[in-house]
UniProtKB/TrEMBL annotation:
Top-level lineage group: Eukaryota
Biased composition annotated in UniProt, kind: Polar residues: 374-395
Designated name of the protein: Pantetheine-phosphate adenylyltransferase family protein-like protein
Entry keyword annotation includes Nucleotide-binding: no
Organism for this UniProt entry: Patellaria atrata CBS 101060
PANTHER family listed in its UniProt record: BIFUNCTIONAL COENZYME A SYNTHASE-RELATED, DEPHOSPHO-COA KINASE-RELATED
BP GO terms, sorted: coenzyme A biosynthetic process
Keywords: Nucleotidyltransferase, Transferase
Region annotation Disordered: where it falls in the sequence: 368-412
A single GO molecular function term of this UniProt record: dephospho-CoA kinase activity
Length: 412
């Protein structure tokens, strides 16, 4: 299926980045873009990718800081932005959950304040998920339209982006929401440094990842974010991301199982998303190696992807709730949704039984429709149901079932 891409350059993230502040600041621009893309989807069917660049002052000049220090603040911003996208889509009846809809992806930008010194290492970094505006501009990605926000700070972001690559011509301005009283001024990182420091070069995440939706995207974004950069001096550690994906046989009793995606399809969708937030090298510079092995026993089916930076992603077919977390001692952290907290405890109990150190468990927020006051429809309950279905693989399969088997019209 054909696809096309749009880029939305937001103004710098506010501080504090609560959902209500994000809604006031970014809501109008996001609503305009989603409605435009939804209309174009009706006119020209096909996958529509929306990349949303989120400039963050707190990520600039922090290459040597452990990601665990930056994790809480970054997670709140990413979760709030994905929630806002889902809220607007529910209110406006916009499809953001399947291949015929809009595939929204949040990109994290390390953005300097006006008084910050320029740091050359940032602009040269081609591996995400944290990149500079110049890296994004020079990535070779093809956007048919670029949107920016019509404010002073929005103009600043656009200028940096266009200064790096003046070839972009189809640029449009969007209205902004209310700028917070702080004026989006950058906040220092000194308070963040009080967070207990742990460095992680091998992390794990697990799930079904069926019909990849916004909840999955939040989880995978923070999973990739939590991996620390290799130190600038000394021996370079091996960096790996292990993604446990539930095997097909364990899913046969799921609701609407006939619409479940195969393990390979789920792996491909997961890798496509992770690559989109990790790999910003121009197409001609890409040299990614893929190796598949199928050994007997649990966790034996693995697809290993190696990037030029020597980062490894291991996609493992899992047959139990634990996967590689209890067979690979080198893993040091597990990323979970807050609603699966008990699973993280069960993993650590198993590791302690084996005499292994427990994993640091990092959580992402559960996205819910709280604070999502309806602005476009009279039926708030309908909006909340739509919101939940956009974050549920079961809800997406149900919708596909209803589309494939429509009920006959009732005769009055």
């Amino acid at each position: 299926m054909a696809s096309s891409a749009t880029l939305l350059l937001l103004s710098p993230a506010p501080d504090p980045g609560t959902f209500l502040v994000l809604k006031d600041l970014y809501g109008p621009a996001l609503r305009d873009v989603l409605k435009k893309l939804s209309s174009s989807t009706t006119e020209r069917p096909g996958k529509k990718i929306l990349e949303v660049a989120l400039p963050c002052y707190h990520l600039y000049g922090t290459e040597n800081l452990s990601r665990s220090i930056l994790y809480p603040k970054t997670q709140k911003l990413v979760a709030g932005l994905y929630k806002l996208i889902c809220v607007i889509a529910a209110q406006e009846s916009i499809n953001v959950e399947d291949a015929e809809g809009i595939d929204a992806r949040v990109l994290l930008i390390a953005h300097p304040g006006t008084d910050s010194p320029q740091i050359s290492q940032v602009s040269q970094e081609m591996e995400g998920p944290v990149i500079s505006l110049s890296t994004l501009a020079l990535s070779g990605r093809q956007w048919h339209t670029i949107y920016s926000v019509d404010t002073e700070l929005g103009e600043e972001v656009l200028k940096i982006f266009l200064d790096a690559n003046i070839s972009f011509s189809n640029v449009h301005k969007l209205r902004s929401g209310a700028v917070p009283s702080s004026g989006n001024k950058p906040s220092g990182i000194q308070n963040l440094a009080l967070h207990p420091v742990r460095t992680h070069y091998s992390l794990a995440v697990g799930g079904t990842f069926d019909h990849l939706h916004i909840g999955h995207k939040l989880l995978l974004t923070m999973f990739v974010f939590a991996l620390d950069k290799a130190p600038s001096s000394g021996e370079e550690p091996e960096r790996s991301l292990t993604v446990g994906i539930t095997g097909d046989a364990l899913l046969k009793n799921k609701k609407f199982a006939e619409f479940l995606e195969s393990w390979e399809r789920r792996r491909e969708s997961t890798h496509d998303f992770m690559s989109s937030i990790l790999d910003f090298r121009p197409p001609g510079d890409r040299d990614v190696k893929t190796e598949e092995t199928s050994d007997p026993g649990p966790n034996g089916h693995v697809v290993k992807v190696t990037f030029p930076s020597k980062l490894h992603i291991r996609y493992v077919e899992i047959w139990d709730p634990f996967g590689p977390t209890i067979t690979d001692e080198s893993i040091t952290a597990l990323i979970i949704s807050a609603e699966t907290r008990s699973g993280g405890k069960a993993v650590n109990d198993k590791r302690l039984e084996k005499g292994w150190p427990p994993l640091e468990v990092l959580e992402v927020d559960v996205l819910d429709p709280e604070d999502a006051n309806n602005e476009s429809q009279s039926d708030q309950e309908t909006v909340e149901t739509s919101f939940q279905n956009k974050l549920s693989s079961t809800g997406i399969r149900r919708a596909q079932s209803e589309k494939a088997n429509p009920r006959p019209a009732q005769i009055p």
